[in-house]
Amino acid sequence: MMRKGLPLGVAVIAAPAAMAAMPLPQILGAAKASEASSILVEIDGLRSNRGQIMACMTANPKTFPDCQKDPHARHLTVPAANGETVEFRDVPQGRYAIALFHDENGNGRMDKMMMLPREGFGFSRDAPLQFGPPRFGAASFQVGPAQLKTAIKVRYIL
Fold first, then answer.
1. Is 15 within the bounds of a domain?
2. Mean pLDDT of 7-17
3. Collapsing DSSP states into helix, strand and coil, what is residue 81?
4. Total domains, the chain
5. Measuring CA to CA, which residue among 127, 50, 40, 49 is closest to residue 86?
6. Which of 14, 42, 64, 156 keeps 20 to 30 A from 83, CA to CA?
């Protein structure tokens, strides 16, 4: 439908009445709030309650387990405590993987000695190590509309 007085090539599109009541993100195809979920991760196996747990969750296989390279990754930091639960909220449905480490000295980074981690680490689905960190496929899980509960056991090499 064209209206008089608009510049040439500009058209006004009449939206159906049902669309007028919808929020803009839903019109544009974003997930509804009811389609987002939360992920509860229980952390076990800490050798001390010193420092903090730094966790990240990504949907990008190319940036796992170093989520710092993913601008869309979710990051959480909580005080270190066995049985601590971290919660990732408002997570759209999809495939994700979680990596975490026990930052015992609180310096915000994974300390290493001769390329081996000096601090504890863990991955979703308790993905095993094989000459390095697991691949995204070994640690990934599907998020649906229901809340997801999982556990990650922290491992130490040194």
1. no
2. 47
3. coil
4. 1
5. 40
6. 64
pLDDT reported for residue 158 = 86
Q: What CATH code is carried by the domain that includes residue 45?
A: 2.60.40.10
82 located within any domain: yes
Q: Is 13 within the bounds of a domain?
A: no
pLDDT 10s digits, 32-64: 555 889 999 999 999 999 999 999 999 999 999
Closest by Cα among 67, 139, 69 to 97: 139
- One-letter amino acid at 28 equals L
Query: Residue 153's closest CA among 73, 83, 97?
Result: 83
Phi/psi at 107 (nearest 5 deg)? -90, 0
Domain containing residue 116 = 31-153
State whether residue 83 is helix, strand or coil.
coil
Which candidate, 67, 135, 130, 71, places its Cα nearest to that of 101?
A: 67
Bridge partners (DSSP) of residue 55 are 76, 100
Which residue matches tokens 């009811």? Answer: 34
Residue 129: both structure tokens together: 């190590």
pTM for the whole structure? 0.77
Dig out the tokens for 76 from the structure.
């959480």
Give the mean pLDDT of 116-129.
95
Predicted pLDDT at 28 = 42
